[in-house]
Amino acid sequence: QVQLVESGGGSVQSGGSLRLSCAVSATTAERDRFCMAWFRQAPGKERRVVATIERDGRTGYQESVTGRFSIWQGNYKNTVYLQMNSLNPEDTAMYFCAASFWACGSSPTGYDYWGQGTQVTVSS
Fold this sequence. Notes:
This protein is mostly beta strands. The chain is built from one helix and eleven strands.
């Protein structure tokens, strides 16, 4: 049974940094097939993709976080990280880790598994 568990959220001031982690519980074959992604959702807004990492390691970013956020995977793809620098209040949201057996996409409907989310709050 695939499980995704996020951690690392918290409250920071504008300009600060946070590192989110997503622990991936899955078989080796599943982990090798997954596209992994971080989404975020602010109150009253739709869930939007922030960053993706394909099974071959290629990464993609939402335009608003390019140059500030970085996604990568740990050894054996057991963990997916999101380093967030130069945070601003517009980054405040619940952040979710997601896994897809298909190619990475921007729509939440393309993802097969989700974590419970971790809250990030950035104050000005």
